[in-house]
Amino acid sequence: MEPNAYVTSLQGPLTRAASLLNMRVKAGSLPAAARVSIWSCVVSHLMDRFADGVARVRKCTVPGRGLMTLDVGHAYSFAMKQCPVPPLALARDKAYVDAYVSAYYFDSETDLLQWIAKNKAAYPLRLTRAMVVHGIAASLKKKQLKDVVAAVEAMYLVPTEGGPASSATSALTGLGFGGLASLLPPTGSA
Predict the structure, then answer these.
(1) What is the mean pLDDT of residues 52-73?
(2) DSSP characters for the chain?
(3) Same-domain check for residues 124 and 77
């Protein structure tokens, strides 16, 4: 199956950028380690943009999400062939976007909230909020949706001495998601 046209349109700019980097390394004007660093940033940024794109889709079918995964895979594979870098050098890779897309398949708010709590360090609030609003929201009533969004936002509160972390725990408990409060960092200081 072929990727969407927008993915194919990325090939020209990626090829030109990789060629320029490779040419500079061959000419000795760019260290090979710098090429790896630069290309790692390019690929990671590309994967971030794919995750953002997924987050902006308000309604999507299961086959549509499958096409998104195909597009991500094609773009990632193409970029890595142009200028191979060690996968560990990437801040964001294909697995990052695939995991994000897969989380849209949760049909239980508790399962989704557990996934978000476990992965919140990797995904910014804007992406996880979109996952709730554009994903599971179809199966929730307005009040439930509001509560789930509030629970997600509470998870992202920065813990400080007697402040937001305790508020986050209170918010999760008050919304009926008290079991998730145990996934938050402990409050107070040593």
Answers:
(1) 90
(2) -PPPHHHHHHHHHHHHHHHHHHHHHHHTSS-HHHHHHHHHHHHHHHHHHHHHHHHH-SS--HHHHHHHHHHHHHHHHHHHHHS---GGG-SS-HHHHHHHHHHTT---HHHHHHHHHHHTTTS-HHHHHHHHHHTGGGGS-HHHHHHHHHHHHHHTSPP-TTSHHHHHHHHHHHTT-GGGGGGSPPPS--
(3) no
